[in-house]
Amino acid sequence: MFRKIKMPTAITILIILLSVSLCGFAVANNLTTQDISSNSTSRLPQKAIFEKMGIIYTYSLSTNKITPLADDGNKKYIPRLAPNKNYVAFAYAKDYDKFNMLKVGILNLKTNEIKDIIIDNTFTNEIMDIQWVGNNSIGVEGHISPHIAEYFTYKVDDGSLIKRCQGSLFNSLKDGKSIVYKKSGSPYDDNAEIDTVYIDDTPVYRADNIDTKIEDIQVSPNISKLLIVEKDNKNNKNFVVTADLDASKNLISKSQKASVNTAKNKRLLLLFDEEDNVFLENGIKSTKLNKEKGTWEDISSPIDSKMIEESKKNWEKLNTSLKEYFKNVDNNDIVYVSSIFWFD
């Protein structure tokens, strides 16, 4: 979520694909394009940040060194690096001695100081994810039930609440001042269980029927478009809806739907570039949406064999360093490490 992509996306795509094959779902599930994208197109990211056993670490390829961050005895989970790489947001373990208090910490990497933000736990009982909205605010996803989550955006400098809502598939507009998310209707509504996209309290897009489920929502970098991924379970078809967004009113002015063929067991990756072009990656294949025709057209893949081999070696170096650093700990392999993010 909160993706800002620069094309070519070779480094971003390659790391996602290799993380799935080398590290398993436990690692790949926490990867986002914002966190692992590199501004350099000539080399792969050389550093990583991760969490193991409630401690956040950094890793450097150049030195093969693993370093703990702010190891003050408090358990820290879900580390998320700010886009400017000056801060790390993380979730504390739930404090059962203080009425199940939920907290997020903001670690200043330059001063090693931590600023805490208290999360409202009236309905939320667990922090599930944290995402940066620019460099000055964060989004926090909380668990309410298996089908409903709660989402908050907070200012980082003073910890004040910007916005909150309940639903799923959250994203953010305007530095957290507006939130886009999905709801699946209400049993008291004639359109019960039909997936609907909202911006704040306003419905802006509804799926065609109960069998069509909205699986992803993304916002373009300049907040002019929404990208909505749909799955027609009855006919086993995938669709991508590109919708023009009137950012001043938070309303969709028009939209178009394109059918997308995806290979079996392949992860679908959809990206915007800074000019609001839409790209789809399915394995090594790259396609671009023709906005006028509403169809996907093949483009040259930006990934080459040398980059693939270099990336594999980088993951292997990290895994070797992990086994050495945690040699006295059971389960010291990379698959037992959470939230790995590569960066420069």
Q: What's the layout of helices and strands?
A:
Blueprint: H1 10-23, H2 25-28, H3 33-36, E1 47-52, E2 55-60, E3 65-69, E4 76-81, E5 87-92, E6 102-108, E7 114-119, E8 126-133, E9 137-143, E10 149-155, E11 161-173, E12 178-183, E13 196-199, E14 202-206, E15 212-219, E16 225-232, E17 237-246, E18 251-260, E19 268-272, E20 278-282, E21 285-290, E22 295-299, H4 305-325, E23 338-343
Helix pairs in contact: 1-4
Short description:
By secondary structure, the protein is mainly beta. It has helices spanning 10-23, 25-28, 33-36, 305-325; strands spanning 47-52, 55-60, 65-69, 76-81, 87-92, 102-108, 114-119, 126-133, 137-143, 149-155, 161-173, 178-183, 196-199, 202-206, 212-219, 225-232, 237-246, 251-260, 268-272, 278-282, 285-290, 295-299, 338-343.
Descriptive overview:
- This protein is mainly beta and 344 residues long.
- The protein has a single domain, classed as Methylamine Dehydrogenase, Chain H (7 Propeller), CATH 2.130.10.
- Helices cover 12% and strands 45% of the residues.
- It is built from 4 helices and 23 strands.
- The strands form 5 sheets. A 7-stranded antiparallel sheet has the order 8-9-10-11-12-13-14, with no helix packed on it. A 4-stranded antiparallel sheet has the order 3-2-1-23.
- Strand 17 (237-246) and strand 18 (251-260) form a beta hairpin.
- Helix 1 (10-23) crosses helix 4.
- The longest helix has 21 residues, at 305-325.
- The model is unreliable at 1-9 and 20-42 (pLDDT under 50).
